[in-house]
Design goal:
With about 70 residues, the chain is mainly β. The chain has one helix at about 60-65; strands at about 1-5, 10-20, 20-30, 30-35, 45-50, 55.
């Protein structure tokens, strides 16, 4: 069975150590993907996920806009 990731109810978050002083947290607001579960043979299950780098949000516009063309 294949499931679509519901982008309206999902998020992809991350945290990164900055200068060994603080942790920067953020998320991507545009995510998409699929999940396939093979109940008969779980080893054949897979996940395909994608986050749009241009949708990064760390609540610091100067940092978020560095990689946006």
């Amino acid at each position: 069975m294949v499931w679509e990731i519901d982008a309206a109810h999902s998020s992809a978050g991350f945290s990164v150590r900055h200068m060994l002083i603080s942790t920067v947290k953020g998320q991507f607001s545009v995510v998409r993907g699929k999940l396939h579960i093979d109940e008969a043979n779980p080893a054949n299950s897979w996940v395909e996920a994608e986050a749009d780098a241009a949708s990064v949000n760390t609540h610091e516009p100067n940092r978020d806009n560095i990689c946006v063309p």
